[in-house]
Amino acid sequence: MRTTLNLSDDALIAAQTHARRRHISLGEAVSELVRRGAAAPAPAASGVGAAPLRGRFALLPVRDEIVTAGHVRALMEREGV
Predict the structure, then answer these.
(1) CB 16 within 8 A of CB 2
(2) What's the pLDDT tens digit per position in 32-65?
């Protein structure tokens, strides 16, 4: 099916790169990427133990204190990192 899409610059570059790597047309690349995205598992519903996402990072709950490097070091020591 022929259609017109308005893609962000980064999405177009990703689709073009995918098409070049697989030696397929841009339309086929976009179709593959859309199918892959549609088949991906849906993120957990927010509010049921799942932290909201900003980009690919989960946001932490609001705290009454500022998280310092000391907090991070203590956590790293506890976790053995």
Answers:
(1) no
(2) 999 998 887 776 555 555 666 667 777 777 778 8
